[in-house]
Amino acid sequence: QVQLVESGGDLVQPGGSLRLSCVASGFTVRDDHVSWYRQTSGKDREWVATIYSTNIGTNYAESVKGRFIGSRDSAKNTVYLQMNSLRPEDTAVYYCYVPAYGHWGQGTQVTVSS
For residue range 70-97, what is the model confidence (pLDDT) as tens digits? Predict the structure, then answer.
């Protein structure tokens, strides 16, 4: 059974940092791409980043490029999203998603506010 569990969301001031975690089960993050999306109330879910399998690399939305870093720990079967230089417009619920199984996590709230 595929499962994704996000954590790490919090309230942070503008310019601050957070690291989100997505613990996977039922598949291996080494072998399947995992993406991060975010959603604010009343808006469509927005793609943020994809951590590709087998060290192909990571791709980012223009809005987060240079500030967010995706990574993978195969031993822990976990993907991460390091978010730096956070802005109020980064406020959203962040989800991880595995396209190969069409499965979403439950989301974690990130709020950037002074």
Answer: 999 999 999 999 999 999 999 999 999 9
